[in-house]
Design goal:
Length: 280
């Protein structure tokens, strides 16, 4: 798709990335409330540059390893012509947004823009089951929060709308520690060199994916992978080491035939009622 194929109009453009539907649902809610249009970030991955056409635009993404997903970093690094726009981002997260919004803000600055509105929306964890988590309640709260978020976006609010009452600056060193733990953890589970660039290392995490005898070769994993990272071969899916770690293949496999060390064993999640068609 060329950059010209992003239609020019006044409705707010909402770019999103989602592995298991949380961020997609939040993007949809925003588009309903703002009369906007949603655009999938993976659908733009072959474009050399992305020039948003609306006066304001937003980016909705899940937090991975206290940071921005690699695909979202790459997308943001292709933004152009954004200097005069109101830019907002919504981070969906299960525990803490870490430095994800800061990373995005820095990239947008380097592209000549300003990330004005930074919104955090707590959603269910999609990979790591917490001991106690009331999914219905979290989603109800998120829905209510989106009413406030959308009003703030309409008024072009500038600042950070955090998920916690208090967010301590003391947490910042922890994010750096987390970064090195992430590197170490992924290097171990994938048998890779921990000195590799973190984005490349994350791509290697699929070395921990396996498929068991329940696989019936339906090919959904290949189709649902937003990174085109899975090829269905005669013995089942093969992962190509440019994994986003989104867990779509693992969570949407109808046979629950895929296993991975990056999710809690036996825990599977997708946004309740999300239709597979929407994820494809
Ligand atoms: C690989 C991976 C890493 C994650 N890391 C974090 C994290 O550091 N902090 C956090 O709060 N949530 C983390 N999560 C949880 C997701 O951010 C959260 O569930 C998100 O809403 C999922 O969105 P999606 O359904 O649109 O993919 C992680 C999820 C995955 C799969």
């Amino acid at each position: 798709m060329s950059e010209e194929s992003i239609p020019e109009n006044d409705s707010v453009q909402i770019f999103y990335f989602s592995g298991t539907g949380n961020s997609l649902r939040i993007a949809e809610l925003l588009s309903e409330k703002l009369d906007g249009e949603i655009i999938s970030i993976p659908s733009l991955k072959d474009q050399k540059k992305v020039i948003p056409r609306s006066g304001s635009f937003g980016i909705v993404f899940p937090v991975y390893y206290a940071d921005l997903p690699v695909i979202v970093k790459r997308f943001a690094n292709k933004l152009e012509g954004i200097g005069d726009k109101y830019i907002f981002a919504v981070a969906t997260y299960g525990g803490d947004t870490g430095k994800s919004l800061k990373t995005l803000s820095e990239i947008i600055k380097s592209r000549g823009g300003k990330l004005s509105g930074m919104y955090e929306v707590h959603m269910p964890q999609n990979g790591f089951k917490k001991p106690v988590e009331n999914i219905d309640k979290i989603i109800r709260n998120a829905n209510m929060r989106m009413d406030i978020v959308s009003e703030k976006i309409k008024s072009e609010y500038s600042g950070r709308f955090i998920g916690y009452k208090i967010k301590s600056v003391l947490l910042i060193p922890l994010y750096f520690l987390l970064g090195s733990l992430t590197k170490k953890g992924i290097a171990e589970l994938s048998g890779s060199d921990k000195n590799m660039d973190i984005d490349e290392l994350i791509g290697m995490a699929d070395k921990s994916f396996t498929v068991n005898e329940k696989c019936n070769y339906c090919g959904l994993c290949e189709r649902i992978c937003p990174a085109n990272n899975i090829k269905l071969e005669k013995d089942g899916p093969v992962w190509l080491h440019k994994c986003e770690n989104c867990l779509a293949c693992y969570n949407f496999c109808p046979q629950m035939a895929i296993e991975t060390k990056i999710a809690n064993k036996g825990y599977r999640y997708k946004y309740p009622g999300i239709k597979i068609d929407k994820m494809l």
